Structure formats: C-alpha cells, structure tokens
Amino acid sequence: MKALRDALAPLAALVILLALWETVARVFSFNPMVLPPPSTIGLEASRSAGSLLSGALSTGRSALVGFGLSTGVGVLAAIILSSSRVLERALYPYALFLQMVPIIAIAPVLVVWFGHGARAVAVSSFIVSVFPVIANTHTGMRSVDPALRDMFRLYGARRVATLWKLELPASLPHLFTGLRVASGLSVVGAIVGEWVAGVVEGDSGLGILVLVANRQGNTALVFAAVLAASALGLLLFGAVSLTGERMLRRWHPSASGS
Amino acid sequence: MRISGIRRTFSGGVSVLDGLDLDVAAGSFVALVGPSGCGKSTLLRMVAGLDRPDAGTLTFSPPLEHTPGARPPIAFVFQDAHLLPWRSVLDNVALPLELAGVPAPERHASAHALLQEVGLGDATSRYPAQLSGGMRMRVSLARALVTRPRLLLLDEPFAALDELTRNRLDDQLLALWKELGMTVLFVTHSLSEAAYLAERVVVLSRRPARVMLDRRLALPPERLPALRADPGFAREMGLLLQALEQGEAA
C-alpha cells in the first residue's frame, strides 16, 4: 500500500508530462524526426519489440560482465590500496586516472586490443564503472573504527582475519554505495563501447540500434532504444539496491526504517 | 600477578606520563582517577600493549604472554561498546575466542554462559542495533570476559550511560570480578564510581601524570547499593576529591 502511495506522485508527473509532450508535438505538428510524440514512440517500440529486446539482452550481458569485473577488480584494488600507506600513495593517482579516461577516445584502442564485439564492449563498461567501486570501498576500509582495530590487535588477529572479519564487512555500506553508482555507469559504458566496438550483424546491442535508427531518421526508435537502455540501468540499480538492503538490513541505520 | 615500573612516556611532543610507578597486586581491583587528558587512557593502552612506552618497563609476574592459539590473557573494555553491528550478540561475544582459533561449539558455549551471567541469556540472537546502550555495554563486558582474562582493563566503560544503568553495571562488574578473580584496572573520572567499585584508588594529577594519592579504601569488601549513602563512603569521596583538586592545580 505504502509503495503504491509513494509511486503515485511520480506516476502522476509522468502522465502529465507525456500528455503535454503529446499535445505540443501534435498541435505544432513537429517533424517526427525532430520530436516524435510519445504515442509514435510507443507504437514504434511495440513494432520493434523484438530487436529492442535482443538489443537489451546483448547490452545487458555486456554491462553485467563489466559490472561484475568492476565489483571484483574494484574490491581487490581497494584491498591493495588499504593494505599500506606507501601502496596507497603510489597507486591511488592511477586509480583516479581511470576515472578521468575519456572512454570515447580510448574505445578505438579497446578495439585494437580486444577486437570488435562483446569483449571490448564489456571492457568499456568496466572502465567506466570501476572507479566508484574502488573509491567507496577504499573509503569504507579506511574508516573502520580504530577501537575495533585495537581490539583485533589485542586479540592477536592475523592480517587475513582482520580483513575478512573486520575491514570488509565494515565497508559493506560504502561498497554498496559504490556498486549502485557503478550499476548505472556500466550500462552507459556498454552503450558507448558499442558505438565504437559494437557489431552490426547478429548480436547487436541497444547502442548499435540507436546508431542505426538515427541514420535511418527513425527518431522514434532512437527514443525507444534510449528508454530501453535507461530501463536496463534501472533494473541493475534496483537489483543492487535490493541486495544491499537485504545484506545490511540487520545492522546499518541506512537500511532500516526507510 | 603484578604490574610494576611504568615510566616515562611522550607522545607527539606532549609529555603525558613522565616517570610513573605503579604496582598492582594480582586479583585486586584498582581504579585510576584523574582529570581528563591526564594520560590515564594512554597508561591503559600501554598496559594492553596497544601503545609502547618511550622508556621504562612494564613487567608482569607471572608473565602475561600471548602465545598464538592460546586465549589472550588481557581484555580491554572501551568507552563505548564497539560491537560489530553485522554480528549477532552471541557471535560478538564469541569473537575473541574465534580469533584465538577456538572451535565453534566451544566458543559458543562460553559466550552463552557469559551472556547468561550478564543477564542477556535470551538476547543472544539479536543484533547490536536492536539493543539499548546499557545492553550493548553488557555485551561488550561479556566479550571482554569470554577469554577468562587474567587482567581486565576498562577505559571509562560506563561513562555514556544513565546513572541507574551505570550503577547496575557496576554491581554486575563487581559480581563478575568476585567470581572470576581477575585483576581489574578501571579508569574513570567519576569519584563515586571509583570509590564504590575499587579496593584501591589511585588519583593522578594533570599531565604529565603523577600519583597524587594511592589509597586502599577503608570500606567493607562487600559493596552494596546502601554503601553509597554511608558516611564512610562520603569520607573516602572527600579524600579523593581533595587529591583530585590538588592534582588539577599542581
């Protein structure tokens, strides 16, 4: 019931926005190549449902692989960065560098390294989404309660035990903040990757669909594909948030009472 | 068991402890009182081995060595409960044994027994976020005692609690001390708490800390709540307060 009530306001806003858009597009009879009315987009989406779905599956797969890589590599990098001050000072600037890489500029290099297709797309997704995982997990591991560190030391805990039983669990809330950001970014990274490294034949993703529809002047399909990509990002975001809430429900204030 | 010859420590350019001697007899309950920032906590951390003195020695007889795999002989209770929020009460209390490599059934049995003693026998599967401040502190106390330490260090453990809860925890601590017989070093800034709990109270000056008063209290060994209203208790409090004020002015 509460969920329904919470969803009411944004739903109403959406309906009003769509109605307004439809009216404006029809009354001023915009060229549908410039601004297709929502009804046209909907019609186009249902007509191209097949290619939208297979595109979403392809992009989703690449984004999922990129996101998985980001999670694994990101947590590992954070563990390495947190293991010593010297390593942190030596390596953190380069982790930051990853964040600054203009993906659209480096994507051609990815094609050289990984060839056209899903592999390069997944790597692009990974590069775009890994930094928030590193940065947040690292922050989490650095902000472990010093008294708890003292306690582990007092009880003669080994390095590995401290990592598993203190540092990693303590940084879970931070990790999930990073993963939520990374989930949306991984889809963005996959779409951009497809623009440069995607393949048109057979297994083509939403990014390719956008390119092709755009070239054909089918703006309605472009909109439909963009919507599908956003839905994909939301889906991943929702799954990550839900997992995080379940894991943290019992102990973290951010997960309870909301 | 005896701690002797704690001397001379500096930290960050500030002289916190400048040649301090203190002997503590095995099995005794000693309270350390002093103005805030006088170095009580630093002293406690050095006894625990969490901090190193720049000079001077800390000796225990018989030696308190922590051999890997064995139960650690020293336990520390911090100012706040500092529990692991992702662990149940039982697993929090069992943690020191877990880190010492004690098998699960055995450490859970030990943890259960201690939780029973602090009156939390039916809260074992709850999580720290679901407990009151007083309950969390009792879990923290149970965690410290689960290893059956020979030396228990407490750093203003109940300072954040309301007075009634604090008095109740004081009684619980005394009962556990009587039962388990470990040496207790209790840092507090509450004179009444020190007088109520300890056999012996050491009053420190502001830093660098010197011993202003080292007094074996003339109070009955059996501490009951009625003692707080006793004239003898008031007299001891007066003596402690005087020493504390002198230490502050020195």
TrEMBL record, chain A:
One of its GO terms (molecular function) is ATP binding. Residues 56-244 form the ABC transmembrane type-1 domain. It holds the Pfam family BPD_transp_1. CDD domains: TM_PBP2. Its main location: membrane. It is found in: Cell membrane. Keywords: ATP-binding, Cell membrane, Membrane, Nucleotide-binding, Transmembrane, Transmembrane helix, Transport. InterPro entries: MetI-like, MetI-like_sf. It is a multi-pass membrane protein. The chain crosses the membrane at residues 63-82, 94-114, 120-139, 181-200, 220-242. Signal peptide: none annotated. One of its GO terms (biological process) is transmembrane transport. GO terms for cellular component: plasma membrane. Belongs to the binding-protein-dependent transport system permease family. This is ABC transporter ATP-binding protein.
TrEMBL record, chain B:
PROSITE patterns: ABC_TRANSPORTER_1 (PS00211), ABC_TRANSPORTER_2 (PS50893). The keyword Iron-sulfur does not apply. Residues 1-231 form the ABC transporter domain. Keywords: ATP-binding, Nucleotide-binding, Transport. InterPro entries: AAA+_ATPase, ABC_transporter-like_ATP-bd, ABC_transporter-like_CS, ABC_transporter_ATP-bind, P-loop_NTPase. CDD domains: ABC_NrtD_SsuB_transporters. GO terms for molecular function: ATP binding; ATP hydrolysis activity. Gene3D superfamilies: P-loop containing nucleotide triphosphate hydrolases. This is Nitrate ABC transporter ATPase.
